[in-house]
Structure formats: structure tokens, C-alpha cells
Design brief:
16 strands; binds zinc ion; 9-stranded parallel sheet; 2 domains; Urease, subunit C, domain 1; TIM Barrel; binds guanine; globular; alpha/beta; disordered C terminus
Length: about 450
Amino acid sequence: MTAGARGRVVRGSVLTFRADPAAVGPRRALRFYRQGAVVAGEEGRIVWRGPHARLPDVFKDFPIDDYGEALILPGLIDAHIHFPQHRMMAAPGRDLLDWLERFTFPEEKRYASASHARAAAPLFLDRLIQHGTTAALVFSSVHRVAVEALFTEAHHRRQAIISGKTMMDRNAPASLRDDPSIACKESEALIERWHGRDRLRYAITVRFAITSSEAQLQNAGALAARYPDCLVHSHLSESAEEIDRIRRQFPWAKHYTDVYDRFGLVGPRSVFAHGIHLGESECRLLARKKAVIVHCPTSNTFLGSGLFDIGHIAHPQRPVRLGIATDIGGGTSYSMLQTMGEAYKVAMLRGRNLSAFDLFHLATRGNAKSLGLGDEIGSLESGYWADMVVLDPCATPVLKARHALSRSLEDRLFALSILGDDRAVRATYIAGRRVWDAKGSSPESSSAADVGADVGRQNRKA
Ligand code: GUN
Ligand code: ZN
């Protein structure tokens, strides 16, 4: 191999997971090279990683980005975030349903406009890369044009985005409602156009059972059966008021999860955000069907929805698969580091303990597996996409002071998860290309890199 225009050696302290530390112990789960390197090939995939001292000769004339002692990890993955809510964080609602009606629905109406959605998409994706997030499962709005805008921009950047048109035909303002047949036709057209196109994937997206008629849920289930490699993405068991409404709307259902299950929406490709109030039989059903529950800690506390009990959901006798996410705009930070920190605190309030290894695993390899992308991203292995985040454990005076006391890798990671945020993100790479550089130096000449650099310049002015 020759040093092509985009081949690159990224040097620093390299950390990746090959297995779940909770299952096999950190020693077997981790690969860590204090003075390591990752080599991205011309195609944007990893061609080698290991100790820098053993870098094969063939890569020695590749350009090098050297980050010293900073940590190079797989890019962070956000397993549930809302594109049309990207600027409406910190909207105070009495509870989830009040918040939806007062702030969320009015903001989402704007995404009927293709030009609004097209202007928002690069801002949203910039925000992700600035926070070290390289891949995400994204709720869009009910409008087809919004999904088109997001996929078009993500495709341009080669970013791994999974999204879909939100299906909702009742209990929402008229301009946010579709109908069962339109929702189905539009979803199908979007699947045909975008699913599997380079790094993009489609998620059949039901907002939540409250905003869909039984006819629409039926159609969504039929779509999931017709396109079994698309994800199914929805919300489940988030707030007490929501669960009350579900009981009234679906009196025949055994419980909330049963509503989705009756319509064929619970399976190994199903990803449900929240799951705070799930009962034992719901957990058993979800575990048996291998569906995923995504923990959204900053959103759950902000909206007062409840304290997620990770020990209950992931109980070893019937573990439900897990993800972790920001849930912007219910969530209060784009940072997966802050999200990990809040997950830690919520677990403590539930009498559970999460290690830094558990948290970083969940936000990288764990989320990749939960989104069905475990063979492509989430680990730094040959053949995987070279999506990476570089974290500086001394990024702020507070982190630096804490770092002086850190005695182990776990300690460094723990401090980053509790004290870190976007300021700790030194650089972000997507498909081997640096798309965000906190110091704003030498952005590459692609439009994605240019966008990152522009954000960098704005940053420095602020
Ligand atoms: N349930 C239905 N829609 C939403 C949403 O937009 N955000 C959250 N957090 N929960 C929901
Ligand atoms: Zn959500």
C-alpha cells in the first residue's frame, strides 16, 4: 500500500473494547496502547492499530496526526437524538406530555419547510462532531423533506446516520399528522432511496403509541416485516402520564410493550428510548425478543420522567439489551461524556455502580451493537470504519488538576465521564478524515472538514 492522499496515522493513547467489560472483565475486554497508533486507509477504514513502536514500515511515510498522551477512542455513538429538536433544549415542561405540546410540536412544525430543514441539517451534524459523536440513531419530524435534508447532508459527510420519517397520525397538531397510508408510502420511498446507501440506514419510526392509530401501528409492523434489516425506533415507558394515556387508548393491552408487540414492532432490530417504568413481564418480553432499551439520563431527570434502574433492565437472568443516548432536546447536553456522567449518578441513586469501563463501552461498542452496526463501528479493529474521537484528559483546568491525581486508565476515564464535555474533544474523525479539530489547525480540504473548521473559528470568537 502507498501513502494515498487520505491514508493517515493517528498517534496517541489508543483504547478500544473487544468485548463487554461487565461480561468478561476489563482485562480481557480492553485493548490499550499507551503510545499507540491507528492507521486509516484511503477508503476510510482502519488498516492497522497497535503500539506505535511496532508500526509496520509500509505506513511509515503516511502523514501523522500526533496527539501525544491524549486518548484515541472509537467515535462516540448517540443511540437516540431528535434532529428537529436540536435548538430547543432547556424548554421547561411540567412533564413529558406538557413539554411535547408546549415546545416540541411547535418547533417540529418548522420542518415542513425543506429550506428550514436543509439549513438545520449541517448545524445539527456539526454539533455532533464537535462533541465527538460520529454516529447516531436520529428521530426526524413527520415531514419527508426533513429526512431528505438530514440524509443528504450526512451522506455528503459520510457520517453513519440512521433515521426515518416519524409516523404520527393522531393526538398531535394537524400539520404534524400524516395518515396510515401516506406514512407507509413515504417511509417506503425513503427506505428505497436511502437505506444502505454508503453509511446510511433507515429506521421505521413510530413517535410513540399515543400518536399513532392502530391502523398506523399495523402498517408500521408490516413495513418492519417487509424490510427486516431496517431498525424500528420509538419511545417506550417514559413517564407516568404517558403510561396512563396508553392504558386508556389501548385497553386491550397487557402493558405498554404489549401494544408494540401486538403490531410486530418488538424484535432484535427494535430500539426503544427510555424504558424507565418497565415491569418484569415487559423486561422478559423485551429480553426474549432481543429488543434494545436506550437509557437517556439527562432527559429523564430534566423532564422528571424517573430514575432508570439499569440493574433491573439488565438483570443477568433476563438481560434486556442496552444503549445510551442524549435524547436532545429533552436531554440537556449533546455530550456523550456528560451523558455517561449522568448515567453514573442515576445508577448511584438506584444503588447501582457503573464503572468507567462500563460507561465507555456502552457509548462505543455497546451502542454500535445495539444499533446493528457492531461489525462496522464502535471498535478500533482492522476493517472497521476509522471513526474516532480524541479526548484530552487535561482539557480544562479542573480536568488537569484532577488528572494529576489519576493513577490508572480507569481513573482517567472516570474523570472524563464526570468532568468532561465538548471541551475535552480534541479532534473527531469520520471515515479516516479529521472533521473537527478543537485547535482549528490544518483542516482537510473536504466540505465536511471545512464545516468543522468553520465551527472551530466561531468557537474561538465566542
Ligand atoms: N415521546 C414521544 N415523543 C417524544 C420526544 O420528542 N421526546 C421524548 N423525550 N419523549 C417522547
Ligand atoms: Zn426521544
